[in-house]
Amino acid sequence: MKKISLKMIEKKRWLLDKNKKIFCVTEAKEFVDRLGLISVFCNGRLPCLLKAIYTDDLVNRFEADNRLWGFVHVLISEKWAYYGRILGGNNIIISMKLLPSLLQIMPISDYRSLYVEGSLSAVEKEIMDTLDAGGPLMADEIRRKMGIGSQPAKKRFNRALEGLQRKMLICCAGKIQSRWRWHSGLWATTEKWIPRDVTARARVLSEEEARRSLIEKYIYATARTTSRSIARFFKWPIRDVVRIVSSLIDKEMVSSYNHKGETYFFKGNL
User: Fold this and answer.
1) Chain segment 212-239, per-residue pLDDT in tens
2) 252 φ, ψ to 5°?
3) pTM, 2 dp
4) Which of 2, 78, 153, 226 has its CA 20 to 30 A from that of 239?
């Protein structure tokens, strides 16, 4: 770790070098598969897809965002990756290889039961009913079916969309071209969107195996991290994180070092 700086690791691992950028969607898929967990936009912790994509040939940020979302929607449409505002409300992309581990930890609940328990709002339930009956749908199609027109109602609707993503009840399912020639994102229930083999793999994993896979990949993706950062990101008890990281160190799957009184974890050099 002393021979190669953290900035150098991030530069190579996150494709920040201008000569190592993503030029096509298959390279974006390789990026997601290799890192497991990435952020669409920069959040200060995870590698950022926007910064990894080549955009020097574009004239403004609008075109850069279009290329970014074009790649994201192909990844989703081909079911090469899962996208949603999960794990703290971040715009996260998860590889299909890692998704079974997340599903084991965050299984898809029955939304009707959640509503009866009081864990789902009336707006969230109506969105779920609408998508369950006729999804995937664009957001404006869902609003139209629900009769939402006022600005306050639209704000409640948007909050409900984010809440359902955090609960892993809905996810982005791709995009279509609307009648105004804009490409709009499609929403679907997570239960219907996720491939059956992914849910099958999630069922055979133990909770310990799933957490170990997620932590190991998070350590690699972030270049270096701490127990507190891992616990905060996944919202897990610190004692569970410390135990799992210790087992990964014992198995030589990750390494650690101390710097200014803090213990950091990392995996590999590049």
Assistant:
1) 999 999 999 999 999 999 999 999 999 9
2) 60, 35
3) 0.90
4) 2
